[in-house]
Amino acid sequence: MDFFKSAAAAGLILAVLDLLWLGVIAKGWLAQQLGPLIREQIMPIPAILFYLLYAAGLGFFAVQPSLGDGDWLRAAAVGAFFGLVAYGTYDLTNLATIKSWPLPMVIVDLVWGAVLSGVSAAGGLLLLKQFGWA
Q1: Alpha carbons 77 and 20: distance in angstroms, whole number
Q2: Distance (Å, rounded) from C-alpha 16 to C-alpha 134?
Q3: What spatial distance separates the first Cα and last Cα of the chain, rounded to whole Å?
Q4: Which of 18, 67, 128, 129 is most buried, most CB within 10 Å of its CB?
Q5: Per-residue pLDDT tens over the stretch 17-39
Q6: Please, are residues 63 and 124 in contact by the beta-carbon 8 Å criterion?
Q7: Considering only CA atoms, which of 5, 10, 8, 1 is closest in space to residue 82?
Q8: Residues spanned by the domain of 51
């Protein structure tokens, strides 16, 4: 049960922050970087599957192991590393295989993945502790 709570708490924060980033803060910059590759409308099923899978990873690797002692700094560090690995896998593979994949996109996305994941893991842990769900 702790796994599901951990994934849900991290996933809630992840989804809110990432949708704010993608839909408001970086929307124009992403369109400029990716040009015709970016969709006008997202495909909801793959997006939902991504958030569920990614939240499960954050819950399993970063939040759940930190529940016992409530160490939010550990959750943040493990979450940030998880994000760097996951986003790095995507971005560096694209850089290696897709013509004209923009290097600025790689750099910004690696930083965003680490920050987003660290904050989501730490925030998820703190959310569980705050409401006594841990």
Answers
A1: 22
A2: 21
A3: 10
A4: 128
A5: 999 999 999 999 999 999 999 99
A6: yes
A7: 10
A8: 2-130
